[in-house]
Structures are given as structure tokens and as C-alpha cells.
Design a protein that fits this description.
This protein is about 60% helix and about 5% strand. The protein is globular and about 75 Å long. It is α/β, with parallel strands linked by helices and about 325 residues long. Strand 4, helix 8 and strand 5 form a beta-alpha-beta unit. Helix 10 runs parallel beside helix 12. It has three domains: about 170 residues, Rossmann fold (3-Layer(aba) Sandwich), CATH 3.40.50; about 40 residues; about 100 residues, no CATH class. The chain starts with a strand and ends with a helix. The chain has a five-stranded parallel sheet.
Length: about 325
């Protein structure tokens, strides 16, 4: 089985729990046994290493934001709880500082569990080096406006040309990428028709496309269960299918505990505002509003531009009175 995992999926490993990362080890075993051939391009490895620091920096920044100093009115300071709270706050700040130091040390030493599992996969994968020939093919693809790729960026085009060149004819490709350069504008869980047709014509086979690694595992290796991602997916599905306001509040309360969502999850969550009235109609409820405001503030860069603008406008209209006070 030929498998290609795009850079953004590898970067999402930093969102996974240690238990989930242990599940990823099963993929490495499948590769070692020869059940799966993982194709890694030099372009993906370089992109990962270029973006690793900024990805981790965002996570550490959110951790540092936990060190907030509560404000107390003067009238509270005569109560016995006040010094107790101060002591707890000081202990909390010390623990957070210690945690940040340990995380930074592991980041610098590249000993994060995610780093270890990614490196394990890289070592077991088949590497396709970036050659001038591949760059020239990618540039031609870009010049004639053929997908995948963005104007001025050859990365996705290089990856696609590398796969066309390297994967054996008459063999299916399983491609995992959370990137609009690959997925159809008509169905974001489907590969662009142009790419699907091209692979069929040149390789005499099809490409099976997935937006999330968990989808690939669920279909082909159901014993590999990314537990935290599964729980998150079930909560998203509950919001998608919410048939009343109570279910909407319940689903959002479960989603609030997650600090990280990948690109496709963020776009799906926002789209629900416009496709499910049981969500959109109560966006002005404090908990629903707060969840979507947080989603916009923390993950707005992952949203499609049009969806980003629509959410901003809808939140402006739905802003609770308390927020305006």
C-alpha cells in the first residue's frame, strides 16, 4: 500500500497525546513489515523542519498565557480566602514556569514524543530527493495553472511530480493532506478531479484521498485508534447533527476543552454555523458565542478567507449584550 502524508499532517502530530503517538508507532511497524510503503519527499522533510519551530512556538505561547494574575477588589483582601488564593496562585505560576522550562528543554533537544515518532517514520520511509528535473516539472505545472499548488509556491507541485515519478504504475496511492490545493471545491473530502484524472491516465490507478490521518486508519487499520482525535471527532459530529438547542450546548461544552483543532476541523466547525440552524440561531448565547469567538481568535488563520469573513460578520451580529457592556 502506497501512502503519502503531507507536511501539515506531520505538524499536527504536535497536537496528539502520548497515547495517540504510541498508536502512530504501529504505522512504523507496518512500514517495516512491508505492508505499507510510506513515501516522503525531501520537500516535505524541509517544509516540516522549516515550520516545526513556529508550530511549537504557538503551543508554548498558549501555555505561557495560562500565567494570568487574577484581579481582586480591595474589599476581598480582609477575608481568609484571599491569602490562600494568593498562595495557590504562586504555586500555580511556579508549576507552569517549571513545565514551560521542561517543554523548552525537550524542544531544544528534539526529544518531544512527536519529534521521536516523526523521525521514526522519516527513517523508515522511501525518500524522493528534490532534483532539478522535478523542480522544472513543478514550475511548468505552476506556469500552466495546473494543481496542486499556490501562485509562487512550488512545494505541492514538487511533491505531486515526485509521486508521479516514483510510485509504481498500476498501484493505488493513499494520500493524506489537509490542504485546499488537493481537495475539490465541490467536496472537500474528495481529491480534485484534475489530479484524480491525471493519476488515472499516467499510473492506470486511482488515488484515495483523506483529510485526516484518523480517517485513513479507520478505513484500513481500525486497530490503530487515535483516542483523543476520535473523541474530538465524535464531539464535532454531535454538533453537526444537533437537532435541538440542548444538544448544541452539550456538544459545545465538550468541544471547549480542546485547545487544538486542525484545519479541516476548524472549517467544519465554522461551517456548522451556517448549515445547522440549531447552532446558528443561538450563536448569541454566551457559551456558543465564546466558543466561536475563541475559535476565530486562536485558529482564524486556518479558515478559508470567505468563511473567516462570514464568521466575523456573524459574530458581530450575535455579540451578547454583556460583551458590549
Amino acid at each position: 500500500m502506497n501512502l503519502f502524508i503531507d507536511t501539515n499532517i506531520f505538524l499536527s502530530f504536535f497536537h496528539l497525546s502520548n497515547n495517540d503517538l504510541e498508536e502512530i508507532h504501529k504505522l512504523a511497524i507496518l512500514i517495516e513489515k512491508g505492508d505499507v510503503t510510506l513515501w516522503i519527499t525531501e520537500q516535505v522533510k524541509d517544509e516540516f523542519r522549516r515550520n516545526r519551530e513556529s508550530k511549537i512556538s504557538d503551543a508554548v505561547k498558549k501555555l505561557k498565557e495560562q500565567k494570568t494574575k487574577p484581579q481582586f477588589p480591595q474589599i476581598c483582601k480582609d477575608y481568609e480566602e484571599y491569602p490562600q488564593i494568593q498562595e495557590l496562585q504562586e504555586d500555580f505560576d511556579k508549576k507552569i514556569s517549571s513545565l514551560i522550562k521542561k517543554v523548552n528543554d525537550d524542544v531544544a533537544a528534539r526529544t518531544l514524543k512527536a519529534d521521536q515518532k516523526i523521525e521514526e517514520l522519516f527513517k523508515k520511509a522511501k525518500l524522493v530527493k528534490t532534483t532539478q528535473k522535478l523542480v522544472d516539472k513543478a514550475r511548468l505545472r505552476m506556469d500552466v495553472k495546473n494543481p496542486p499548488g499556490k501562485d509562487g509556491s512550488l512545494g505541492d507541485a514538487i511533491n505531486w511530480e515526485a509521486l508521479l515519478e516514483s510510485v509504481t504504475d498500476d498501484e493505488k496511492l493513499h494520500l493524506v493532506a489537509d490542504d485546499k490545493d488537493y481537495y475539490s471545491v465541490l467536496d472537500d473530502n474528495k481529491l480534485k478531479d484534475f489530479l484524480s484524472d491525471e493519476w488515472q491516465e499516467k499510473k492506470n490507478e486511482e488515488v484515495q484521498f483523506y483529510r485526516r490521518l484518523s480517517q485513513f486508519f479507520k478505513e484500513h487499520y481500525p486497530d490503530i485508534k487515535l483516542a483523543s482525535e476520535l473523541e474530538k471527532e465524535l464531539s464535532i459530529r454531535a454538533l453537526v447533527n444537533s437537532g435541538n438547542f440542548a444538544n448544541t450546548h452539550n456538544a459545545v461544552s465538550k468541544l471547549e476543552k480542546y485547545a487544538e483543532f486542525n484545519k479541516s476541523q476548524v472549517n467544519e466547525l465554522v461551517q456548522i454555523c451556517f448549515t445547522n440552524n440549531q447552532v446558528g440561531w443561538i450563536l448569541d448565547d454566551q457559551d456558543i458565542y465564546a466558543f466561536y469567538k475563541s475559535l476565530l481568535d486562536n485558529h482564524g488563520e486556518k479558515l478559508e478567507p470567505e468563511l473567516n469573513d462570514k464568521l466575523k460578520e456573524k459574530l458581530k451580529e450575535a455579540e451578547p449584550e454583556e460583551a458590549n457592556a
